[in-house]
Write a structure and sequence with these properties.
By secondary structure, this protein is of the alpha+beta class. A hairpin with a 5-residue loop joins strand 1 and strand 2. The radius of gyration is 25 Å and the shape is flat. It starts with 5 loop residues before the first strand and ends with a helix.
Length: 236
């Protein structure tokens, strides 16, 4: 079940307190329930995948083609369609719905979202350049990036050169984000730390790709409590 992902909306940040008094910053996500719209088989497309729809959309916002597609699948229209490759399609049938329960036994997830757009930015802000000298001969170009090319050979600016330009507004994936807790009644997921994107940004969450032996916050606190108890016994 963990091969598929869920789509959510970033609500904002808060903090979660433990019994020991320790506080952890968390990002709160409002998750959408996903419905299987189509099961894609190997013999038809050359790969196995599941198409899942998220969110609600009014019928008048759809194109004729999409109206026909959802009518053929006999399901209510979905705002967003995502396709996920899976090893086996046996567990998935059209009309099945998935929610936060797919993360029941999962401690760490990978989060993909679009970063906040900063517009056109200079080289100092965008790439952390040092800039030119603040005095002594530098004339009105203190924050410029300096020369970008070479002399006659090769006589061009190479692709990928760090220069001023559009900053942010890019898809980024953060790996191994810990799930602090989940609220199934309200479809809320609490993730440790911050994740890319502004408020109300669309976020895709799936099981962590890497196999981790990292301890969760609750496991770390349990270990600390055990160490304290053992230290107190030794003192006695």
């Amino acid at each position: 079940m963990s091969e598929i992902a869920l789509v959510g909306k970033k609500i904002g940040m808060t903090r979660e307190f433990y019994k020991t008094g320790q506080s952890v910053p968390v990002t709160v996500l409002k998750m959408e329930t996903g419905r299987v719209i189509q099961v894609i088989e190997q013999d038809k497309r050359g790969y196995k995948a599941v198409q899942i729809g998220f969110g609600k959309i009014k019928n008048n916002k759809l194109s004729k083609a999409m109206k026909g597609y959802f009518a053929k699948k006999n399901t209510e229209p979905k705002k967003l369609l995502k396709e996920f490759k899976v090893n086996s399609t046996e567990n998935y049938k059209e009309g099945n719905e998935f929610g936060l329960e797919i993360f029941n036994d999962i401690k760490f997830v990978d989060v993909k979202s679009k970063t906040i757009g900063k517009g056109f930015a200079g080289a100092m802000k965008r790439h952390n350049f040092g800039g030119l000298r603040a005095s002594h001969g530098v004339s009105i170009s203190h924050r410029s990036h300096g020369s970008t090319g070479q002399r006659q050979d090769p006589g061009k600016v190479f692709k990928g050169k760090k220069m001023a330009g559009h900053m942010g507004d890019k898809i980024r994936t953060m790996q191994n984000i810990e799930i602090i807790k989940s609220d199934k009644d309200n479809n809320l997921l609490y993730l440790k730390g911050s994740i890319p994107g502004a408020k109300n940004a669309e976020v895709v969450i799936k099981k962590a790709v890497k196999n981790l032996r990292k301890l969760t916050m609750s496991e770390k606190i349990e270990q600390i409590e055990k160490m304290k108890k053992s230290a107190d016994k030794k003192k006695k």
